[in-house]
Amino acid sequence: MEVRDRYDAPYENESLRKFLAAEPDDLPWMQDWLAMIRDATAAGRRFARVRVVSMPLTDYSRFGVWCAQFTNGAGEDIRYLTRDRAQAAGLPDHDYWLFDSRTLARMHFDDGDRFLGAEIIEDAAEIVQHNYWRDAAWHGAVRRDDFATEHHLGRR
């Protein structure tokens, strides 16, 4: 689950600039990730995430919706949930990843939106709680293509 409206990922900066200027981009920084997703999903692994977004969307979130068409095309299932619905459902305000519903990695960021690292959580009750949140978020989330259509995001 990703809940931030912006991430300071230096490798994305040029692609974000091109996106906002409606310039073509082959997303070179994303190609290894897409290849890994294709290989892993071909081997039967599942990749899915929910992105919680504020409305109206930030420029970065619009860029993320645009990029998600490529990761979804590679086999990942990215869905969107508006922040008001996430708050109404009592979902957390921190990013985390679950691996096979057993390993929890809680992401940490500084005040400038820079990724500081992941903390592996081993507490069983906390892992169960995050699985519950994942399922609740998934239940209320909208498929990327439906979200893009509903919010008139098109291909760019």
UniProtKB/TrEMBL annotation:
**DUF6879 domain location:** 1-148
Q: What is this protein called?
A: DUF6879 family protein
- Highest lineage ranks of the organism? Bacteria, Bacillati, Actinomycetota, Actinomycetes, Pseudonocardiales
Give the organism the record lists. Answer: Prauserella oleivorans
Source organism, top-level taxon: Bacteria
What InterPro entries would the database entry show?
A: DUF6879
